[in-house]
């Protein structure tokens, strides 16, 4: 949700010729065992990896390359090698009770991995390739979930913490974003950005590069292979292809590493709920591994039936709520944005009063006066104090007079914990705090609620009508109903 | 052979009753599921009530009503309890929910807060919102014979799935032209599925079972014929309907003079029989809150009252009071701007966003045009559902206020074309087309009044 | 042009029959960054060739599996095959052949082909002719006319299919619909919308294979925007000429200085389809157009007009006070947001 604050940050970045920080806390976990993965596909062949650079944070890359990814066996061998490596890594994570984290350059690279995962995990020819697809599917399956920590795009991670002075769509280019965050001296930032944009930073090489450099080299290899050239010749051609591709992928790898370094160097304190987000990730990973171990079909199908879709949607909605609340409460800039947008209510306490309504029941009420221009609050809403989740209130009345909004609030919980509120106190309220346990309740609930598939959600014929047998239908059913008034 | 002459052609009231009878008969026929599409103000909640009463009082069955929100559940419960004092009803809410005063004091309305407090067996009508039904413990009470879902087009399929098995027969009642269910998270995975979890449940149902019994309410009790001729082609091209009232039956007239105001020509148009007029301020790109526009809306409200406006509706003539006025805006900030300007005595004017106006009506409506003062159109402000709600709340007349230049803005607009494979839906284009249609029709009918 | 109706530059170029990509290289002398990778082209060609070979066996099979064609409906007309060669004369022959085939279908000939490969249609616009070559046209025997087919080697990933790919393919199919309607109009048949509804088939690729998927799409929005753009063409031509005259009596479109003066409507989406987007961005930068920060900025800062003015309002204190109530409101908002941001960082 873009707010006025996001826009202002962009404006300031534009003014200053460098990115403007727009977060007070680090919202992304940088896992010490994370891997940076930078694959490049061959244009038009979305389910290939022509070359890939893979390595730990701050470490050198291991480069794997095939001269022609359209040749199935060498391509499968590349997948298998990655898969074997990752299998050890995933196993280590499982034993340590943590989760695997992948960093890629941008959304395009993440999409590429998603296409690969969706295809490879159904591979019937090579179990080792299938395994790679399954492991990859953990990360790509988590990608659309808010607050996930398994598959991080460098562009996304940077965009949460810095605003550039350009359009959001242009932030998809990692080089451009880095140019804004670390503008080179003596060069206007827009020029630096334009220059950076010439270098591919996604999962594809430049078409002109393909036409003039890569394609001739690949063709030389395939021609040699077809004419049965000796191994030494083939190896030479293959090395040429790799030599052409390596600088491209290493540049992307370096940029992704740079993004992580920039984030680390910014020294932002981690979001208060970041451990909870990580714990959630670890729990999801554990559940994933357990299902994988069962070897009975694959849970993440390409198309969902109604039950799986309902679970999936519930998971995403819960994640959006918890992650959103975690950021809103834990990051000062997000909180400020929330105040401006009227999603965080801030006001002064007035006229606190306690009324005894029964021998052991006291009702506490107070007014909260806010000067916010916009407030998304209505009667019968329940709000919760931003800094102390124990205090919950019910909105009994909303009165707007001039620039002031007066909320009449009644305490719902938190009487004993908080004691009586004093006039003049400034308090902040939000619609909800992150509820980390909600998802388990929801999933348990859905398991019961969706246990039997209703016929409405089963393909096939409709059930036959069951007419009321006892009497013939009346001529005027409406009159019968009206007679009951 | 019966020749249908003007005399034998059914009146709108008869058409409306026939449609309701047809719906009621489906329950005698034991139809497993019925989808009932309802244009605005067609009395769908009335149909919901009658289905429930027929189920309980005539057929001796157990009927559950599912609404979207608590407010809707309160409203249905109140209407049933007050309309049928000889029958008993149960409102089922979550523990701790504060109930409004207007529900207290009905001897025939019980409140259940736990599943075990729901009538366990025997004939009953139980009203609750869909979430409450979903979380209830089905083992605590016998299954129902009939489930009626009100505002079904606001219920996403994944929520409907959780309650669909609770009854033998289902009736889904809703308005297809209004604001669809709000789903905030990523849905790329299910976008191409016409029966996806995010899709409104009546649509998903028909996608899965194309032979489902479909009925429609043919008459709007709320809208007048003049409004229907604008609203129906723009927002309900697949759902023809008529107005219940005869042309000219509902009127606005002013009774006393007041100091001249720029809004007078628009009021005059309405007095002459127009139910939908547009006031156009000089063009300006004003940003989200146009203070002049808010001033104009309030000035219009004041002038109507100052000139002693009277509203004739259903044979009654009533003096226009502020409580009979509604103002609908696109944004909360605009709502605030209007509310701030309301003078003393006008506190009862109901000012809200379109989302919050759903299900409500007023004799006279004032609309802050969603595209007014914008530099460009965009998907949010083009949304057909929101505009449809704004233009279909009034029983007598609706004044739309906006800056001139909206048609130009629309014609300049290039839809980005967010299309999904396997889906015929193009919401952006549908919204754009509806907006252009309304704008052009209003102008062609001479309903645009410039404001100096 | 239909994707940005308010752009004067695009209109003028279209009236002159010049594509933005050509302008980039011919007028500005920049290397064209358009064009596909030879690998992608190769896959595309292979995919299409595979569908068309052996009497379009695989394409027909796709339609049979979808229940759109019966087994007996397998008459294929291969227009490039009937009029081979790439000379001007050959192209005209293709156009004639296509015309004849379409007429046959309109006349209700039961032996009219079910599939026409690469027909050549001509759309006239203000004296200019545009050649449109849909990938194929399909009609069952009982259909009254053909439906255009766009074959693209984009991977079909259901809801996850790249939206840019879907958009592009839909638009191309819409162009085919409009071209078919233009052709049918010449034959004097009406009503066109019933005969040739705004619908087309997208044939896409299963990821990682050469198998095809069939996606019928309604194209109401896309066809409508094209029709609107075409209808506005005569007026646009006058406007374009007026724009040029306004620059100078001798202004021509191959002069970079002239192009730089034509009014544009730079949007975030321009990058997706117009090679001149980078130049327009540069112009926007010089002008301080708020769209540099996104379309939301254009909307929010409309009261100020330029980013320079917004920054002046932000600086506040006397330098350049708000000139209108809207500017005053904007300034208040800017100050409040700024204060909040400073406190939070």
Q: What does it look like?
A:
Chain A is of the alpha+beta class. In chain A, 46% of the residues lie in helices and 16% in strands. Chain A contains 15 helices and 13 strands. In chain A, strands 8-9-12-11-10-13 form a six-stranded antiparallel barrel. In chain A, helix 2 (72-96) packs across helix 4 and helix 11 runs antiparallel to helix 14 (438-449). Chain A is globular, with a radius of gyration of 29 Å. With 452 residues, chain B is α/β, with parallel strands linked by helices. Helix content of chain B is 33%, strand content 21%. Chain B has helices at residues 12-28, 44-58, 70-83, 130-135, 157-161, 201-208, 225-235, 264-271, 291-306, 332-341, 354-357, 379-382, 384-391, 406-412, 427-444, and strands spanning 33-37, 62-67, 89-92, 109-112, 124-129, 144-149, 167-174, 213-216, 219-220, 242-243, 251-253, 276-281, 310-313, 316-319, 325-329, 350-353, 362-368, 394-403, 448-450. The longest helix of chain B has 18 residues, at 427-444. The termini of chain B are far apart. Chain C is an alpha/beta fold and 345 residues long. Among the domains of chain C are: 38-218, no CATH class; 289-345, no CATH class. Chain C is 52% helix and 12% strand. Chain C contains 15 helices and eight strands. Chain C has a six-stranded mixed beta sheet. In chain C, a hairpin with a 6-residue loop joins strand 7 (199-205) and strand 8 (212-218). The mean pLDDT of chain C is 87. Chains in contact: A-B, A-C, B-C. At the A-B interface, helix 11, helix 14 and helix 15 of A face helix 1, helix 2, helix 5, strand 7 and helix 10 of B.
Task: For this entry, give a set of tags.
heterotrimer, A: 485 residues, alpha+beta, 6-stranded antiparallel beta barrel, 5-stranded mixed beta sheet, 15 helices, globular, B: 452 residues, alpha/beta, 8-stranded parallel beta sheet, 33% helix
């Amino acid at each position: 949700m873009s707010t006025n604050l996001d826009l202002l940050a962009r404006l300031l970045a534009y003014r200053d010729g460098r990115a403007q920080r727009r977060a007070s806390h680090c919202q992304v976990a940088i896992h010490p065992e994370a891997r940076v993965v930078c694959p490049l596909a061959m244009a038009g062949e979305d389910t290939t990896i022509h070359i890939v650079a893979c390595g730990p944070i701050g470490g050198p890359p291991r480069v794997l390359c095939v001269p022609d990814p359209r040749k199935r066996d060498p391509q499968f061998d590349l997948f298998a090698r990655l898969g074997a490596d990752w299998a050890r890594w995933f196993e280590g994570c499982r034993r340590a009770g943590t989760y695997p984290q992948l960093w890629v350059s941008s959304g395009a690279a993440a999409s590429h991995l998603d296409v690969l995962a969706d295809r490879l995990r159904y591979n019937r020819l090579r179990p080792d390739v299938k395994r790679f697809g399954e492991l990859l599917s953990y990360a790509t399956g988590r990608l659309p979930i808010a607050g996930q920590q398994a598959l991080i795009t460098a562009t996304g991670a940077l965009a949460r913490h810095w605003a550039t002075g350009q359009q959001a769509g242009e932030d998809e280019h990692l080089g451009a974003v880095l140019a804004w965050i670390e503008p080179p001296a003596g060069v206007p930032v827009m020029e630096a950005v334009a220059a950076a944009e010439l270098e591919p930073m996604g999962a594809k090489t430049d078409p002109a590069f393909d036409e003039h450099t890569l394609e001739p080299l690949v063709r030389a290899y395939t021609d040699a292979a077809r004419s049965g050239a000796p191994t030494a010749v083939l190896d030479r051609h293959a090395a040429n292809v790799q030599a052409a591709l390596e600088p491209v992928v290493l540049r992307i790898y370096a940029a992704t590493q740079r993004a992580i370094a920039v984030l680390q160097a910014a020294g932002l304190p981690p979001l208060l709920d970041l451990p909870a987000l990580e714990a959630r990730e670890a729990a999801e990973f554990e559940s994933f591994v357990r299902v994988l171990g069962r070897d009975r079909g694959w849970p993440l199908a390409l198309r969902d039936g109604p039950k799986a879709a309902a679970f999936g949607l519930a998971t995403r909605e819960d994640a959006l709520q918890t992650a959103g609340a975690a950021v809103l409460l834990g990051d000062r800039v997000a909180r400020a944005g929330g105040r401006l947008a009227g999603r965080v209510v801030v006001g002064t306490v007035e006229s606190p009063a306690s009324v005894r309504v029964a021998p052991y029941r006291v009702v506490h009420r107070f007014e909260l006066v806010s000067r916010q221009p916009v407030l998304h609050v209505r009667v019968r809403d329940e709000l919760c104090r931003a800094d102390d989740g124990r205090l919950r209130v019910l909105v009994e009345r909303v009165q707007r007079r001039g620039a002031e909004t007066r909320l009449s609030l009644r305490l719902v919980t938190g009487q004993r914990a908080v004691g009586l509120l004093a006039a003049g106190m400034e308090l902040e309220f939000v619609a909800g705090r992150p509820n980390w346990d909600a998802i388990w309740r929801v999933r348990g609930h859905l398991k019961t609620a969706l246990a039997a598939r209703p016929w409405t959600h089963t393909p096939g014929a409709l059930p036959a009508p069951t007419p009321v047998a006892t009497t013939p239908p009346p001529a005027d059913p409406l009159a019968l109903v009206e007679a009951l008034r | 052979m019966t020749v249908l002459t003007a005399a034998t052609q059914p009146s709108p009231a008869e058409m409306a009753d026939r449609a309701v009878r047809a719906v009621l008969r489906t329950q005698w026929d034991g139809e497993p599921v019925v989808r009932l599409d309802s244009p605005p103000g067609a009395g769908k909640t009335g149909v919901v009530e009658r289905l429930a009463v027929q189920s309980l009082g005539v057929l001796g069955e157990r009927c559950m009503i599912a609404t979207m929100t608590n407010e809707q559940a309160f409203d249905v419960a109140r209407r049933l309890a007050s309309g049928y004092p000889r029958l008993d009803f149960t409102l089922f809410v979550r523990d701790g929910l504060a109930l409004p005063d207007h529900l207290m004091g009905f001897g025939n309305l019980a409140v259940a807060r736990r599943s075990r407090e729901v009538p366990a067996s025997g004939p009953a009508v139980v009203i609750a919102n869909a979430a409450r039904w979903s979380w209830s413990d089905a083992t605590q009470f016998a299954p129902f014979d009939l489930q009626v879902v009100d505002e079904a087009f606001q219920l996403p399929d994944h929520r409907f799935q959780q309650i669909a098995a609770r009854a033998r027969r289902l009736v889904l009642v809703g308005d297809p032209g209004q604001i669809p269910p709000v789903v905030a998270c990523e849905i790329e995975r299910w976008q191409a599925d016409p029966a996806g979890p995010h899709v409104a449940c009546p649509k998903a149902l028909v996608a899965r079972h194309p032979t489902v019994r479909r009925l429609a309410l043919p008459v709007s009790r709320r809208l007048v014929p003049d409004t229907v001729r604008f609203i129906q082609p723009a927002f309900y091209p697949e759902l023809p309907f008529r107005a219940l009232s005869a042309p000219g039956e509902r009127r606005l007239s002013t009774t006393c003079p007041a100091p001249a105001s720029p809004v007078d020509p628009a009021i005059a148009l309405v007095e002459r029989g127009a139910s939908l007029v547009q006031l156009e301020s000089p063009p300006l790109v004003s940003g989200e809150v146009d203070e002049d526009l808010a001033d104009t809306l309030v000035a219009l409200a004041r002038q109507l009252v100052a000139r002693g406006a009277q509203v004739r509706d259903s044979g009654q003539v009533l003096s226009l009071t502020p409580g009979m006025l509604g103002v609908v805006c696109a944004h909360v900030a605009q709502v605030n701007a209007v509310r701030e300007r309301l003078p003393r005595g006008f506190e009862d004017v109901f000012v809200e966003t379109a989302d919050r106006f759903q299900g409500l009506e007023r004799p006279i409506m004032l609309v802050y045009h969603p595209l007014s003062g914008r530099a460009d159109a965009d998907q949010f402000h083009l949304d057909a559902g929101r505009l449809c709600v704004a233009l279909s709340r009034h029983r007598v007349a609706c004044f739309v206020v906006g800056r001139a230049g909206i048609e130009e803005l629309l014609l300049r607009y290039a839809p980005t074309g967010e299309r999904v494979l396997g889906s015929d839906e193009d919401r952006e284009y549908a919204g754009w087309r509806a907006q252009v249609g309304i704008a052009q029709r209003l102008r062609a009918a001479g309903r645009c009044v410039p404001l100096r | 042009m239909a994707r940005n109706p308010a752009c004067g530059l695009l209109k003028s170029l279209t009236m002159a029959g010049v594509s933005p990509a050509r302008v980039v290289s011919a007028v500005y002398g920049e290397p064209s960054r358009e064009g596909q990778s030879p690998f992608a082209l190769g896959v595309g060609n292979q995919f299409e060739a595979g569908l068309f070979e052996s009497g379009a066996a695989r394409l027909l099979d796709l339609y049979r599996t979808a229940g759109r064609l019966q087994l007996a409906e397998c008459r294929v007309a291969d227009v490039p095959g009937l009029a081979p060669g790439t000379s001007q004369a050959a192209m005209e022959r293709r156009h004639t052949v296509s015309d004849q085939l379409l007429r046959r279908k309109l006349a209700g000939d039961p032996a009219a082909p079910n599939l026409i490969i690469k027909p050549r249609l001509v759309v006239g616009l203000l004296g200019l002719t545009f050649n449109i070559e849909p990938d194929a046209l399909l009609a069952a025997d009982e259909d009254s006319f053909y439906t255009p087919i766009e074959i693209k080697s984009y991977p079909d990933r259901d809801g996850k299919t790249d939206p840019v790919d879907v958009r592009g393919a839909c638009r191309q199919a819409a162009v085919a619909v409009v071209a078919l309607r233009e052709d049918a109009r010449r034959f004097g048949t009406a009503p066109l919308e019933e005969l040739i509804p705004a619908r087309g088939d997208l044939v896409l690729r299963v990821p990682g294979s050469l198998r095809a998927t069939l996606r019928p799409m309604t194209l109401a929005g896309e066809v409508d925007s094209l029709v609107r753009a075409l209808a506005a063409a005569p007026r646009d031509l006058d406007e374009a000429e007026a724009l040029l005259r306004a620059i100078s009596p001798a202004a021509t479109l191959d002069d970079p200085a002239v192009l730089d003066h034509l009014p544009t409507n730079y949007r975030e989406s321009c990058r997706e389809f117009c090679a001149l987007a980078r130049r327009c961005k540069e112009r926007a930068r010089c002008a301080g157009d708020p769209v540099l920060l996104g379309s939301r900025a254009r909307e929010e800062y409309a009261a100020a007009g330029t980013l320079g003015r917004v920054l002046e309002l932000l600086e506040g204190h006397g330098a350049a006070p708000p000139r209108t109530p809207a500017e005053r409101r904007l300034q208040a908002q800017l100050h409040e947001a700024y204060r909040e941001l400073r406190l939070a960082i």
